Amino acid sequence: TMTRMRMLGCIFLFKISLILLIQHQVARAQSIPRACSSFSTSKFPFCNVSLGVDDRVNDLISRLQEDEKSGLLTARESPKGNISRLGIPEYNWGTNCLHGVQSHCSGTFCPTSFANPNGLGATWNMTNVHVMGSIIGLELRALWLAGVSENRPTNLPHVGLDCWSPNININRDPRWGRNQEVPSEDPYLTGQFGIAYTVGLQQGQLDKRYLQAVVTLKHYAAYSLDDIPGTNITRLNFNAIVSPYDLSNTYFPAFQASVMQGGALGVMCSYNALNGVPACGNQFLNKTLRGDWGFKGYVTSDSGAVYTIMSKHDYVKTLPEAAATALKAGTDIDSGGVYDSNMLNAKTQGLISDADINLALHRTLKLRFQLGLFDPIDDQPYWHVPLSVVGSQEHQDANMFSAQQSLVLLANPKISSSSSSSPTILPLPKRKNIAVVGPHCNATSDLVGTYIGQICPGNEGFSCIPGVFTQIQAGNVGGKTSMSPGTSVGGNSTSGFAAAMAIAKEADYVILMLGLDQGQETETHDRVTIGLPGVQDEFS
Predict the structure, then answer these.
(1) Residue 227: beta bridge partners?
(2) CA–CA separation, 7 and 63 (whole Å)
(3) What are the residues facing 225 on neighbouring strands?
């Protein structure tokens, strides 16, 4: 009897906990502003779920006033897209999700940060990429419901549900500052990466009626240069001269595969010009992307790229002309202020028509409907994703598995070549004298890459990540573990060489940690040489 009472008590407590969890998720969902949620606004035809999506979108567009439209076509300027009289909440276009949601934590729940895409490409395992995309999309839903903002010092609004990822440009030069963001120099492998990420992120597992999130393939097209040190040439004014053969053989295939096979619904046009025409004003957005490949989604500019049509490329003379050039070429969203400040002027000058504006509105608003943002939420699982999925053990296990597969072991020789039974160097035995030397000997933040979400909760920075030396020391139980950087990543001082050499001479094993950091290569900054920076070659 007592056992049965305990069982009933456990069942009762479980049910109470489940009810409280559901109530908590409903409360979180109701705290996010949403369309069609009030008695007055729910009567609009665009809120009528019995109508087709295109009819609902057209009805909404027909109710917009002229001065309300540009705000809906502007990224990262929320809450300008808020139209209270229609019950339309703001929407923040553009959350970076390169290898994890680039957001703040919500309390102790921090987004899972996967290995950099160049490492993921080295796995040759696109199932890993599909799983990563699915996890990113699910965590994005939970973080969006929590109202968190991007992990940036600026005061951006809460994250949106379209990811400005993946980066599927081609890494044809190891000096490019953004090669860490892309999976490969190979167009085919990069395309497979794009397909896997797209399907995983957009389709999700919880509700096939709606998109889990929206990918935004970047950067279209022929973008593989950020600056040429010693010149005035940067990605903002660079004109990529590319033959039709190289476009079809190298720079287009990954985008084509991700659109036609993966069903990608977002593309970002790049800063550079292509054969004399700025990418965000180039008709290949309409002709190739939409015409040849059947793309059905939206196109956004990179941040400030519409402005550079006038300011850097000198392709047009005025900002209304820049707005018109981009809009008519097929750029639906402006990440910047050009559309918001100049779209009406462009229309008044006869450079664009209502039809041009409404077409961009239809492409973008339709995605918000497909995300379920205009439908009742009670039976939508994506409106009730618990915060507990963010950084969950299941997600961390998937992260660890893909990170392990990304490692490349060039050789693991036997300790003694004279004996066939001699053990290999790896795995390292315990209770040994191990020296960890080099500028990354106890690295933390330098190992997690770029475009990252908040890793540690609160104001802990990267303190929750064990450094290289710290982790090796913890594993070398009963042994001695020492470290010495020897030199800095990009410095020229050799004064630390002696200390590092001293502990290395005494050690049974030496682990040499060399490499780059964001000061050597990053977005906006390319390298000049391919060698190790500073005096690392001499040190090694």
Answers:
(1) 234
(2) 58
(3) none
Where in 79-233 does DSSP place strands (E)?
217-220
Burial class (CB in 10 A: 0-12, 13-18, 19+), 87: buried
Tokens of 318: 């005025």
User: Per DSSP, which regions of 334-490 are E strands?
Assistant: 433-437, 480-484
When the pLDDT of each residue in the chain is averaged and rounded to a whole number, the result is 92
Interatomic CA distance for residues 279 and 239, integer angstroms: 10
Amino acid, single-letter form, for residue 375? D
- Give the residue numbers annotated as catalytic, written as ranges: 302
Residue 437, SS3 per DSSP: strand
Do 370 and 297 touch, CB atoms closer than 8 A? no
Considering only 197-211, 266-280, 392-406, 413-427, which range has the smallest mean pLDDT? Answer: 413-427
Look-up: residue for tokens 């943002």? 373
Token pair of 165 as six digits: 């990822």
Burial class (CB in 10 A: 0-12, 13-18, 19+), 60: buried
**Residue 420: which pLDDT band, with cuts at 50, 70 and 90?**
confident
Contact indicator for 300, 216 with CB cutoff of 8 Å: yes
Residue 471, judged by CB atoms within 10 A of its CB (0-12, 13-18, 19+), counts as middle
Paired tokens of 25 = 């998720």
Residue 95 has what pLDDT? 94
189 contacts 126 by C-beta, under 8 angstroms: no
Q: Which amino acid is at 98?
A: L
Instruction: Tell me which residue of 260, 273, 286, 96 sits closest to 191, measured CA to CA.
Output: 260
Distance CA 176, CA 219 (A): 14
How many DSSP H helices and E strands does the chain contain?
17, 9
Torsions phi, psi for 273 (to 5 deg): -90, 155
3-state SS, residue 53: helix
pTM higher than 0.90:
yes
Under 8 Å between Cβ of 199 and 208: no
Residue 475 CA to residue 429 CA, distance in Å, equals: 9
**Beta carbons within 8 Å of 43's beta carbon, 6+ residues apart:** none
Cα–Cα distance between 193 and 143 in angstroms, integer?
25
DSSP label at residue 239: E
Query: What does the alpha-carbon distance between residue 345 and residue 321 come to, in Å, rounded to a whole number?
Result: 9
* Residue 39 CA to its chain's centroid (Å): 37
**Do residues 73 and 339 touch, judged by C-beta distance below 8 A?**
yes
**316 close to 310: Cβ distance less than 8 angstroms:** yes
> Alpha-carbon distance 279 to 218, whole Å?
12
